[in-house]
Amino acid sequence: NAGVMQNPRHLVRRRGQEARLRCSPMKGHSHVYWYRQLPEEGLKFMVYLQKENIIDESGMPKERFSAEFPKEGPSILRIQQVVRGDSAAYFCASSPTGLAGTGELFFGEGSRLTVL
Amino acid sequence: AQRVTQPEKLLSVFKGAPVELKCNYSYSGSPELFWYVQYSRQRLQLLLRHISRESIKGFTADLNKGETSFHLKKPFAQEEDSAMYYCALRGGSNYKLTFGKGTLLTVNP
Question: Which of A93, B3, B4, B82 has the fewest C-beta atoms under 10 angstroms from its C-beta?
């Protein structure tokens, strides 16, 4: 099992461009979570998705950010019109049972976004 | 609201010395607490959870509801324990983990 796969690992964008981050959960996992880590900060919850459904997006900024987890393919975190403050590490995690069980999240290696 | 505080950004000890990584939380209900660890060039992974009351790699952590703490302890630190440690809390919802800012532990030879 390759684990949670995120790509790209590093992404550089200029202000105003779009950033797309992808996450393939572990095999057998249908629950995906996105976390953001700003410099010198802890991981902050952004959104929780199941296949084709957004369950909780309470941590997502109201504008420019969106997430999806289609029936086929990876989950995608999309940031439109990026600004310098979006520079951060974005982590994806997955779980088989939505944390109702063991509470364990399986993390990817993260995608580091740099906005110039 | 739920909050996790790790007061030490950096912690440095010598091999064989005891180590304690502090974690305090704020939550009005009955929380579940976790410690996650990230070794150099590896993914963030679960180290232990309070509900299991287990010792992993010699580490233990006891939930103290009176002091709202969940400190991680090991009696004799090893160089391979050097890593970033994150305390996390799960509150009322079943899926949202709230993380602290992390403590970077360095174990010197």
Answer: B3
A28 touches chain B (CB under 8 A): no
SS3 category, B42: coil
- Contacts A44 to B, Cβ<8 Å: 99
Distance, in Å, from the CA atom of A112 to the CA atom of A19, rounded to the nearest integer, reads: 11
pLDDT in tens, A21-56: 999 999 988 899 999 999 888 899 999 999 889 999
Q: How far A89 CA sits from the closest chain B CA (Å)? A: 13
Distance, CA of B37 to CA of B103 (rounded, Å): 10
- A23 three-state secondary structure: strand
pLDDT digits (tens, 9 = 90+) for A31-40: 999 999 998 8
- E strands along chain B, which residues? 3-5, 10-14, 19-21, 24-26, 32-38, 45-49, 60-61, 72-74, 83-90, 97-99, 103-108
Mutate to test the interface with B, among A50, A99, A106, A111 (most CBs of B within 10 A): A99
Between chains, do A100 and B94 touch, taking CB under 8 Å as contact? yes
Q: Please tell me the distance from the alpha carbon of residue B81 to that of residue B12, in angstroms, as a whole number.
A: 11
CB atoms within 10 A of CB B23: 27
Query: C-alpha dihedral over A11, A12, A15, A20, to 10 degrees?
Result: -20
Of residues B43, B97, B101, nearest to A45 (C-beta): B97
**CA A101 to chain CA centroid, nearest Å:** 22
